[in-house]
Design the sequence.
């Protein structure tokens, strides 16, 4: 009768009215506990980029190998940079990341800081994608645990370094997580296409090809594999076109590609032989957890574990701290799978989830000696690694150079502050070694600029040739080429 009178039955004191407020409050608490750590990590990434712009990490030689060709490509349409190699294009990495930077430079103009902002933006995108997957696949307290796991992975020092350096790790991670999101959304063709596109950014895409193919196989076995159409066809066509263009590019520069790949493989073998830091145990733990999660989880929830295992293996085989972000991120993805499995109340589920979450923390705080040397000191929050007035003084000097004059910064990463100035003066930058992959025969330069600082890690100083840095605070010294004595 009350119903016919238009009165809400919940007002009669039934269970819906009594339980609605606590349920809503619990849901709100879960949402807040999930997003709060994610938001804090996002703020930390922005803080590192904004406050520790060139202190964590300091300017790094690797960045020059990627930013300088991007700068040239934005200006001339060619990746050839005589500063890196006077004879040919450097072919040691695919050009996808350089093309991305070149596009940014074409739109916004050149800036070393801007190149690092690209990595920070890609890291924020990766954080958003990982958090969205955790939110989508879990619920209740498991969602909260997954959110904290994602936050812990992205708060790792290795992740924060990669978010503030002009390298391709963060754009690559964003692509891999985008491929994972597509696979979970029932778009295995798009996932495969994104992995293929990522191969033009970094060869590490090879680690993610098996998971992408597995997502296709699972869909086929479950008879849910759709016929490719629309966005699937467009993504596959774009991926195919990019791979063909890269193959043509390699064919045109085959001798350089062959020589640079020989250098890369030799360098990786050297790192593997002398690596006393990266252990096989995280990979074995990731494989065991991923296998258990796969056997006990539903199809959609299995995918993060496969991608997570690929991240962990990639980090182990990388043998450099740039790739160490893959281990905490990989275990975070495996934890999401475990927390999303159907057997949610089993002792196995709880124990495996606890192990995966603990491994996120362990890998996040496991810092290599090289990375430890880069951790910011307290003084870095109040001063620059090289004083802005010294940067301005070098810019004024470059403006006086005649066209064709050469200046060497020692391949320290400092040259990236001045690429635009050098191009405007019609001068050129160079390094003493013959190229980035070959030391001899040594090259000469008209001028050498040495910017010293106590913030330079000693592991970088050992590679200096000519006028070495001393690792003490000082000005940027300018030496004429006649005083350029090789050590």
Sequence:
């Amino acid at each position: 009768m009350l119903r016919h009178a238009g009165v809400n039955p919940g007002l009669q004191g039934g269970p819906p009215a009594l339980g609605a407020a606590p349920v809503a409050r619990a849901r709100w608490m879960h949402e807040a506990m999930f997003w709060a750590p994610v938001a804090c990590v996002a703020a930390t990434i922005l803080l590192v980029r904004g406050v520790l712009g060139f202190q964590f990490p300091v300017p790094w030689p690797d960045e020059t190998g990627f930013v300088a060709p991007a700068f040239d490509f934005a200006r001339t349409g060619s990746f050839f940079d005589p500063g890196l190699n006077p004879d040919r294009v450097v072919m040691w990495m695919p050009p996808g990341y350089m093309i991305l930077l070149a596009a940014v430079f074409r739109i916004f103009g050149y800036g070393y800081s801007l190149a690092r902002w690209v990595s920070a933006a890609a890291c924020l995108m990766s954080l958003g994608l990982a958090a969205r997957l955790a939110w989508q696949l879990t619920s209740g307290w498991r969602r909260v645990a997954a959110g904290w796991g994602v936050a812990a992975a992205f708060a790792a020092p290795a992740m924060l370094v990669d978010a503030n350096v002009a390298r391709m790790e963060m754009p690559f991670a964003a692509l891999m997580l985008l491929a994972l999101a597509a696979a979970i959304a029932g778009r295995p063709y798009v996932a495969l296409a994104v992995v293929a596109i990522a191969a033009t950014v970094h060869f590490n895409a090879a680690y993610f090809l098996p998971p992408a193919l597995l997502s296709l196989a699972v869909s086929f076995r479950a008879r849910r594999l759709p016929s490719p159409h629309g966005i699937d066809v467009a993504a596959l066509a774009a991926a195919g076109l990019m791979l063909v263009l890269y193959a043509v590019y390699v064919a045109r520069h085959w001798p350089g590609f062959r020589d640079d790949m020989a250098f890369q493989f030799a360098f990786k073998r050297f790192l593997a032989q002398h690596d006393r830091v990266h252990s096989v145990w995280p990979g074995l733990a990731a494989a065991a957890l991923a296998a258990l999660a796969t056997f006990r989880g539903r199809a959609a929830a299995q995918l993060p574990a496969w991608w997570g295992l690929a991240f962990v293996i990639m980090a182990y085989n990388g043998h450099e701290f740039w790739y160490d972000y893959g281990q905490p991120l990989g275990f975070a993805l495996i934890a999401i799978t475990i927390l999303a499995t159907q057997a949610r109340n089993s002792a196995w589920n709880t124990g495996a989830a606890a192990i995966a979450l603990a491994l996120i923390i362990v890998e996040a705080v496991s810092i290599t000696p090289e990375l430890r040397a880069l951790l910011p000191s307290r003084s870095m929050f109040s001063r620059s690694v090289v004083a802005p007035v010294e940067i301005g003084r070098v810019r004024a000097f470059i403006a006086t150079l005649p066209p064709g004059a050469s200046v060497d910064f020692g391949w320290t990463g400092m040259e990236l502050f001045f690429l635009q100035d050098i191009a405007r003066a019609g001068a050129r930058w160079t390094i003493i070694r013959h190229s980035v992959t070959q030391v001899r025969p040594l090259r000469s330069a008209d001028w050498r600029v040495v910017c010293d600082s106590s913030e330079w890690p000693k592991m970088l100083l050992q590679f200096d040739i000519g006028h070495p840095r001393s690792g003490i605070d000082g000005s940027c010294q300018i030496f004429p080429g006649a005083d350029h004595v090789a050590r």
User: Anything to note?
Assistant: The chain has two domains: 91-372, 383-483.
